Amino acid sequence: MPRTGPELLDRLRTVHRQVSDWYGGLPPEIAVRRARPGDWAPVDDLRHLTLATRALTRGFRAPTEELVARFGSAEHASRSTGEIARMGQDALEGGATSPEAMIPQRPEGLDDARLLEVSLRDWQAAARELEAVVPERSEEELDRIQIPHPFLGLFTLREWISFNAVHAVHHLEGSQRRIR
Fold this sequence. Notes:
It is a single chain. By secondary structure, this protein is mainly alpha-helical. The protein is 64% helix and 4% strand. It has one domain (5-179): Four Helix Bundle (Hemerythrin (Met), subunit A) (Up-down Bundle), CATH 1.20.120. The chain contains 8 helices and 2 strands. The protein has a two-stranded antiparallel ribbon with strand order 1-2. A hairpin with a 3-residue loop joins strand 1 (146-149) and strand 2.
């Protein structure tokens, strides 16, 4: 059974705080280092989470009528966080990758410490903005309004809250594994 909006928001805040705490405690030289060529460094994961969270916030801020006109009303019951996590894992195992618009670019001219500082500040602002708009939607809107995920299909707003938390944990754990 999907959780209530306030319960999901509490979980989201907890995950966002974990992300901030962990990345905030990283030495800059570790945060920017790629384990292997082609891998993302931890700061790249953080920047990706910022891009994705800002995109979701734009969706939450869009007028209900506009979203329903573009994507219809949900025809399925909101799935649980566990179901959303399994969908994401299955897609990754099937070869899904981040869309081009969600691949982080590093700003030029910043040393390691400044890059981490700016990236963490941007993440924290994006997380706060999402956390602020979630309570503006009613329980009914969380289940009725839907927005597409780039490769997982249409998600209700309730599912998007779950996905944002699952996605953040996925990237946090990936960063932790790669620096070990």
